[in-house]
Task: inverse folding
């Protein structure tokens, strides 16, 4: 009899934690397995030198429109000026090289089936530093968060970037906490070529969105009768020069899990001119070490 009692206690102790965890699933979200934090290359971060003075920047002149709150996705009109766009085009031109992809945040490789474009890591001129400051101030983040250096991306014929996340799961939730996609130039000889978020839902039934995102023709014609339920799943932002899209990558629950809705792609366009291309740049914010 005594041996049965001992055996019962052992079984109870063995099964106690799994049972408690099962019953408390609703009170605590599951956590992702954490992968090692990749090494951070400080040469790719926009960090001012100790004796570097602040740039002389013009006042902000952009306007914002909230497309989604969970995840937070904001469309920004006139995020960069015409002069800033001209400057970015000039300094990017001699620096373009084939884009690469990575699976671990460290090693990179060329794979045109996934990403077919050119990229330039631009020098941090005063104009570039002003754009960096504007992007950082937009969020009001604390000082121990870094911004990556600005990269411009150029898409030509058949150019694309397959669906991907900007976030990864790692120790203490390392990764890119937020992203900016800003269009520098969008040639008139392109149809399509938008940035697609297939899992994102446009909740606002306001016809103004059809100026910036692709909308079915019937929605544009019958906007006054739209309801939230009429909105299709998926949002594709049109490439409009000077405008930007900002989104947050991580959920605010402390699990290190990113938003599934941030799954996005750079779609190929239909080219009407042989020399047509569009140019954008991407800002990414990193947690500090």
Result:
């Amino acid at each position: 009899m005594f041996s049965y009692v001992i055996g019962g206690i052992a079984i109870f102790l063995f099964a106690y934690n799994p049972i408690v965890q099962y019953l408390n699933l609703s009170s605590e979200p599951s956590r992702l397995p954490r992968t090692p934090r990749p090494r951070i290359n400080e040469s790719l971060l926009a960090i001012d030198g100790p004796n570097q003075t602040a740039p002389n920047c013009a006042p902000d002149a952009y306007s914002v429109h909230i497309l989604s709150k969970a995840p937070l996705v904001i469309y920004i009109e006139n995020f960069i000026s015409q002069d800033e766009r001209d400057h970015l085009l000039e300094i990017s031109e001699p620096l373009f090289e084939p884009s690469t992809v990575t699976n671990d945040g460290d090693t990179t490789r060329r794979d045109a089936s996934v990403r077919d474009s050119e990229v330039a890591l631009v020098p941090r001129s005063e104009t570039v530093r002003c754009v960096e400051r504007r992007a950082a101030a937009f969020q009001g983040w604390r000082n121990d968060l870094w911004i990556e250096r600005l990269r411009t991306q150029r898409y030509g014929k058949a150019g694309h970037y397959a669906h991907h996340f900007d976030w990864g799961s790692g120790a203490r939730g390392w990764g890119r906490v937020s992203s900016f996609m800003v269009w520098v130039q969008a040639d008139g000889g392109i149809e399509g070529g938008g940035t697609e978020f297939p899992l994102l839902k446009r909740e606002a039934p306001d016809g103004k969105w059809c100026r910036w995102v692709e909308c079915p023709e019937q929605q544009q014609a019958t906007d006054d009768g739209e309801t939230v339920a009429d909105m299709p799943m998926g949002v594709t932002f049109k490439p409009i020069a000077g405008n930007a899209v900002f989104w947050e990558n991580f959920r605010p629950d402390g699990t290190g899990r990113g938003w599934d809705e941030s799954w996005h792609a750079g779609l190929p366009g239909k080219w009407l001119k042989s020399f047509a291309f569009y140019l954008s740049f991407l800002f990414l914010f990193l947690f500090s070490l």
Remarks:
- The two ends are 57 Å apart (CA to CA).
